[in-house]
Amino acid sequence: MADDVAVSEIADEDRLRAHWYALIARFLTTSPDLATLKFMRGLTGDDTALGKGVKALAAAARGATAAQAEQEYFDLFVGVGQGELLPYGSYYLTGFLNEKPLATLRADMAKLGIARIGQVTEPEDHIASLCEIMAGLITGAFGEPMSLAQQQEFFARHIGCWAPRFFEDLEAARSAALYMPIGTIGKVFLAIENQAFEMAA
Fold this sequence. Notes:
- By secondary structure, the protein is mainly alpha-helical.
- The protein has helices spanning about 5-10, 10-30, 35-40, 50-60, 65-80, 90-95, 100-110, 125-140, 150-160, 165-170, 180-200.
- It has a single domain, classed as Orthogonal Bundle (TorD-like).
- It is about 65% helix and about 0% strand.
- Helix 3 crosses helix 4.
- The chain is globular, with a radius of gyration of 16 Å.
- The protein starts with a helix and ends with a helix.
């Protein structure tokens, strides 16, 4: 996340967008611990599609323990050999891991001065990593906040071309209970982002 100075210089709506990306990234990086579950239980939504997803997430969190959340995360994304879902751009775009979309992403990250943190073992085209990058592009975590056109270019090249299908798959995954509304939230939020980018173009 960007420092307070950078965050304070961006518009409220952009700060909110960055928070949504960061929230989604948090849930997809690792299973929620008890503190995160308590936070999720306190979320409130409204009657919009996104708000209904938030309400469903809060309800699901109230019915889940940290151990159940950890098992669900394992079943969905890790598994014995492989999880139910593979949340990587290369896989969704080519059917294989570590393919050209990952190389393209790494080249674009290098141009933006973004590097993977040393202890991170997941490839950079993991959906959580991409959401974190989008949050950073908005807030200026990697330097200056990127223009809307630059954000749109990154979104179109590395997220919009596959992540909506991933969130639809997460929403429908047989192992998903707590993560089902996260699929809904991701799907709806990315649709809002895509529409906003198209209107601004």
